[in-house]
Amino acid sequence: MVTSHQAWSVEAATVILQAMPAEERLMLPALQRIQAVFGWVPDESVPVIARELNVSRAEVVGVLTYYHDLRQSPPPPVSVQVCVSEACQAVGTRHLAASLEAVYGVPLGETRDGVEFAKVYCLGNCALGPAAMVNGRLLGRCDVERVGAAIAQAQSVLA
Amino acid sequence: MTRIYVPRDSAARSVGADEVARALENECGVRGINVEIVRNGSRGLLWLEPLVEVETTRGRMGYGPVTPGDVPGLIDGGFLEGAHHELALGVVDDIPWLARQQRVSFARVGIIDPLDLDAYRATGGLRGLQRALQEPAEEIVGDVLASGLRGRGGAGFPAGIKWRTVLEAESLEKYICCNADEGDSGTFADRMLMEGDPFTLLEGMAIAGVAVGATRGLIYVRSEYPDAIATLRTAVDIARVDGWLGVDVMGTGRTFDIRVVEGAGSYVCGEETAMLESLEGKRGMVRPKPPIPALKGLFGQPTLVHNVLTLSAVPSIIAEGPGDYQALGVDRSRGTQVFQLAGNLARGGIVEIAFGVTLRELIEDFGGGTLSGRPLRAVQVGGPLGAYLPAEALDVSMDYEALADSGGLLGHGGVVAFDDSIDMATQARFAMEFCAVESCGKCTPCRIGSTRGVEVIDKITAGVDRELNLVLLEDLCATMTDGSLCAMGGLTPLPVLSALAHFPEDFHRPPEVTP
Fold it and tell me: Are A128 and B49 within 8 A, CB to CB?
């Protein structure tokens, strides 16, 4: 979900991390908090987190690079996640992915003109597939028109 | 004033429920008709969503699937009085699809507003927790044992044994951890329950905490479920204000509170020990067992780990006593199972029914056969680590032991149907690819084997040393099965080998000539 994000600074990150309650003073919640505020996890945040939690930078990088949700580069304005798992495969998600590539010019896993297309492995909408999520909004029974309309709507909100 | 129900469940919203609610509000407003719109959970008849219900003297009359464009015509046709219409479904409770079910965990889902605590109480909620706070812990644990409740996440381990282990463990700090990382394709029951009746899950956790001596509960929800996370957090706040979560639960001086934790996109964090590592803020790496989490779990403390559905069965077992639950089912599979019908089916959704139903009944009677109308070719039961069963093998009883004897896996109860347009070599390749993407990396057979598995299958389909590579694939599967610490690498061979066994023709096609 793309919402307005704060510009990165070490000072801002430090304030955010120091405000974390005791039970969240762990590496993954800290990284998630940084991403929630700034939209992504800049490399410069690693030593700040390491210092605040008293862990090594290597450990922080280990967690940062493990989880698919955590981004090490700024997010695009529009994020399209297409489910490529079995229940959606059963109703033609491979064809949907190919249709999206034909229209937007990039396969799943790439970005063009501010729209990022990504594979996601199940959105929990398995009886109404193919499923997709556009800027956090879940769509069912998708065809390329339905996804296209959601992309256009997401773009108009940002314009 | 007429009461109308329009589901807020994300599946219903994914096909326009919010737009329908808005259209109803606007249209009734313009016409000066007084209506109360309640956003309920989904009844689970997903092919009929958005399923709108109207409360009448005859009961709740259903209409669906409704689009915003249908709204004026529905009102003109008198649907606010339950009149007939081409979208009319009759009294929802009487719809055979629903009437044949035995809803225990899903008893309230679709009936009430999920966040209406008064409605929760009025339908029997919190009686289980009240009893748990009064009775000795041994008696509560004894009831869970007597009910025959087995873990509904996939392992099917007797729940009561875990409860007893944690109760008997000596520690000042114990935890209840709910595994809501429902990552299996074809499964959505946890999501729908968290969105449709969150208080049941919270009450189940509170009963567990009170019984085993834990003061803190955590719910680990996958990040792909934002609505479930938001609904649970609101439900926790409501419960705290009402006084049954937090310090001094229901005025007894006992403490139990719950924190909802968001995952970060990792399928293997659905494995209980990887989930614990993730809850500790670390990489979701699998831990060897022993020690079992019941003795050394979260932060090294005794931890009761359970799936959403397991915990959600607890309040009624404790409130009513274990007899009713235990009386349902077959052999060693007691109680009800929440099946999720998914994929290429005409009628997909939630079927909660006693163990003993067959796969054929689920696919044909409930599911209505394929959505496409093409012949059914395969059914995958139990998620991505489950076997692909051919259309001829549908007469298997859907219980833990019967499925295992047939070479299948019940897992979390997901049933995914495929028609004859599916290629099983492609499916086998996906099983390996998914394992490669999601592997935590600890075990070489899983981490490397899955990547090699993709390559070997590509060679087979390309016709490169086909017979040798088929032997190699089977050997690789044996290595992954025997050499992996958890089910990620350990069960990835199950869909692959089942595809080879039941659909060998797909691995022997003439290689496609690339232009």
Answer: yes
From chain A, which residues contact B within 8 Å (Cβ)? 1, 23, 26-32, 59, 62-63, 66-70, 83, 85-91, 120-129, 131, 133, 136, 138-141
Assess contact for B323 and B196: CB atoms under 8 A: no
Q: In this structure, how many other beta carbons lie within 10 angstroms of the beta carbon of residue B254?
A: 16
* HSE toward the beta carbon, residue B40, CA cutoff 13 A: 26
Nearest to B112 by CA among B25, B53, B46: B53
Rounded Cα–Cα distance for residues B422 and A121 (Å): 18
- Residue matched to tokens 């309230």: B108
DSSP track, B402-440? HHHHTT---TT-EEEEEETT--HHHHHHHHHHHHHHH--
Distances, alpha carbon B375 to alpha carbons B205, B421, B460, in Å:
44, 9, 26
Name the residue with tokens 């699809």: B97
pLDDT tens track, chain B, 515 positions: 999 999 999 999 999 999 999 999 999 999 999 999 999 999 999 999 999 999 999 999 999 999 999 999 999 999 999 999 999 999 999 999 999 999 989 999 999 999 999 999 999 999 999 999 999 999 999 999 999 999 988 888 999 999 999 999 999 999 999 999 999 999 999 999 999 999 999 999 999 999 999 999 999 999 999 999 999 999 999 999 999 999 999 999 999 999 999 999 999 999 999 999 999 999 999 999 999 999 999 999 999 999 999 999 999 999 999 998 888 877 888 888 999 999 999 999 999 998 889 999 999 999 999 999 999 999 999 999 999 999 999 999 998 888 888 877 888 999 999 999 999 999 999 999 999 999 999 999 999 999 999 999 999 999 999 999 999 999 999 999 999 999 999 999 999 999 999 999 999 999 875 44
pTM: 0.97
Write the residue in B49, B186, B266 that is nearest to A67 by C-beta: B266
Whether residue B7 has a cis bond before it, omega within 30° of 0: no
Question: Is A101 exposed, middle or buried (CB count within 10 Å of its CB: 0-12, 13-18, 19+)?
Answer: middle
Q: Is the C-alpha dihedral spanning B6, B12, B18, B22 positive or negative?
A: negative
Q: How far is CA A69 from CA A119, B126, B166, B413, B430, in A?
A: 12, 36, 33, 27, 21
Which of B46, B372, B437 has its CB closest to that of A127? B46
Q: Which of A79, A86, A120, A139 to mutate to test the interface with B (most CBs of B within 10 A)?
A: A86
DSSP A55: -
In angstroms, the CA B5 to CA B49 distance is 12
The answer to whether the CB of B132 falls within 8 A of the CB of B212 is no
Contacts of B160 (CB under 8 A, 6+ apart): B141, B142, B144, B145, B146, B147, B149
Does the structure's ipTM exceed the value 0.95? yes
Q: Compare CB distances from B10 to A63, A67, A138 and report the shortest one's residue.
A: A138
B121 touches chain A (CB under 8 A): no
Phi, psi values for residue B376, rounded to 5°: -70, 135
* Residue A147 to chain B, least CA–CA distance (Å): 11
